C-alpha cells in the first residue's frame, strides 16, 4: 500500500476511534457528524466518503467492537486443553475485556434502548461463527464427565454475559452501597473468581 493508501487507512481508523467515543457517550441519535469530524480533525465530507452516512459509521463501530470480542474467543480457544480450564480462560478474558472497554459497554446500553436494531443483525453472524468452538468445549466436557449433559449452552452464554456485564454497568451504584472502588484490581479479581465458581458449580457433574 502506498503513502496515499496509508493516509486513507489512518483517516478511516481515526474516524472509527473518535466515532466510538462519541457514539458511546451520546448514542446514534445524539451524536453529530460535525462533532465526530472535528474530533478526528477531518472534513465531515470524509465521513460520507468512507461510510456514506452517520448510521453506517455507527454500524461499522459496532462491527469493529463485536469483531474484537470474536477475535478474543479465537485467541484463547484451545481445542486440546481441559474443557473446564478452557471455559475459565474464556470467562476471564471476556470479563477483563469488558472491564477495559467502557465504550463497548456503553454502546451495548444504547443498543438496548434502540431495541438492538443494529446489534441483532450483526451478532447473529458472530455468534454463528463462535458457536462451533463453544460447542466443542461443552461436548468435550460432557465426554470427560466434567459437564452435565443437560446444561443448555445458550443459557450458559447468557448467564456468563449477564454475570460479567451487570457488575460493570452498576459499579457506581455498588460503590454507593459499599463505599469501595468496585473496579480496583482486587475487587475485579474477587468478582471474576465468584463468577467462575458460580458457573462451574452450576454446570459441573
TrEMBL record:
> Which keywords, in A-to-Z order, does the entry hold?
DNA-binding
Gene Ontology MF term list: DNA binding
Q: Where is the HTH tetR-type domain?
A: 9-69
Q: Which domain of life is it from?
A: Bacteria
SUPFAM superfamilies tied to this protein: Homeodomain-like (SSF46689), Tetracyclin repressor-like, C-terminal domain (SSF48498)
Q: Which GO terms describe its biological process?
A: regulation of DNA-templated transcription
Its name, as the record gives it, is: Transcriptional regulator, TetR family
Amino acid at each position: 500500500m502506498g503513502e496515499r493508501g496509508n493516509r486513507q487507512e489512518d483517516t478511516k481508523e481515526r474516524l472509527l476511534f473518535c466515532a466510538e467515543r462519541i457514539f458511546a457517550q451520546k448514542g446514534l441519535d445524539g451524536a453529530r457528524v460535525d462533532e465526530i469530524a472535528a474530533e478526528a480533525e477531518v472534513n465531515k465530507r470524509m465521513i460520507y466518503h468512507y461510510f456514506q452516512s452517520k448510521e453506517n459509521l455507527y454500524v461499522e463501530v459496532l462491527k469493529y467492537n463485536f469483531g474484537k470480542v470474536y477475535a478474543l474467543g479465537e485467541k484463547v480457544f484451545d481445542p486440546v486443553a481441559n474443557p473446564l480450564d478452557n471455559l475459565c480462560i474464556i470467562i476471564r478474558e471476556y470479563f477483563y475485556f469488558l472491564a477495559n472497554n467502557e465504550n463497548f459497554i456503553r454502546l451495548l446500553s444504547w443498543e438496548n434502548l434502540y431495541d438492538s436494531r443494529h446489534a441483532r443483525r450483526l451478532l447473529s453472524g458472530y455468534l454463528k461463527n463462535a458457536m462451533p468452538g463453544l460447542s466443542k468445549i461443552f461436548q468435550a466436557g460432557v465426554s470427560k464427565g466434567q459437564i452435565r449433559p443437560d446444561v443448555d449452552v445458550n443459557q450458559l452464554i447468557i448467564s456468563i454475559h449477564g454475570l460479567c456485564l451487570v457488575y460493570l454497568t452498576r459499579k457506581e451504584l455498588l460503590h454507593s452501597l459499599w463505599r469501595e472502588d468496585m473496579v480496583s484490581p482486587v475487587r475485579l479479581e474477587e468478582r471474576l473468581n465468584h463468577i467462575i465458581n458460580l458457573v462451574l458449580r452450576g454446570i459441573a457433574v
